[in-house]
Design a protein that fits this description.
- It is a single chain.
- Helices cover 28% and strands 25% of the residues.
- It is an alpha/beta fold.
- The protein has one domain: Alpha-Beta Complex (Spore Coat Polysaccharide Biosynthesis Protein SpsA, Chain A), CATH 3.90.550.
- α3 (79-89) runs antiparallel to α5 (144-152).
- It is globular, with a radius of gyration of 15 Å.
- The termini are far apart.
């Protein structure tokens, strides 16, 4: 296992919530508490630098983070904008990037991502069934310059921006429940 004191955690909660009728997904209750609370329970003991990127409800999210950031750009430009904001304030050399709507993440997956990133000295990302899952990543904080350049070049996809460098895979089986995103009202039932 890698030394978790070297890893910040960036939770992305800055979307419009379009598939949820405009509701802020991280604050929607699931099993009696907001989705962000479930994620917080897993990552809080794992890091001393918990960053939450949101574009609304910052006061509510502040209870779940050491730092709250917002996109520099207006109008919900996407996850890459949240990653740029989070990397800019991260205090550790490695940054785990997670979505607020994946409450089943566990420490074993975080440990595997961090170990792979540190071992390969690059960005580690879950690959599931041949598909990359950028919302389950550990990035070197030093990737900020490369990602800013990708943004300046017009790239808006986090995956494509990260693919400009080497990507290290952490393979997960199809159907792995830890990777399930709660993207529709049916998931909350």
């Amino acid at each position: 296992m890698s030394d978790v004191s070297c890893c910040s955690v960036l939770v992305l909660a800055g979307g419009r919530g379009q598939r949820m009728g405009g509701r802020d997904k991280g604050l929607i209750p699931w099993h009696g508490k907001p989705l962000i609370a479930h994620l917080h329970e897993v990552v809080r003991p794992w890091t001393a630098d918990l960053i939450l990127s949101c574009n609304r409800n910052a006061v509510l999210y502040a209870a779940y983070a050491d730092q709250v950031v917002s996109d520099e750009q207006a109008d919900f430009p996407g996850p890459l904008a949240g990653v740029l904001a989070g990397l800019a304030v991260a205090r550790q050399p490695w940054v785990a990037v997670l979505a607020c709507d994946a409450p089943r993440i566990d420490r074993a997956l975080l440990d595997a991502l961090l170990a792979r990133a540190v071992e390969g000295q690059g960005a580690a990302m879950v690959r599931q069934g041949g598909f990359w899952q950028p919302m389950f990543s550990v990035l070197p904080r030093t990737s900020l310059g490369m990602l800013r350049q990708a943004w300046d070049d017009g790239e808006r996809s986090l995956h494509r921006a990260l693919a400009r460098g080497a990507l290290l895979a952490v393979e997960c089986a199809e159907g792995d429940p830890r990777l399930e995103n709660f993207n529709s009202p049916e998931h909350y039932a």
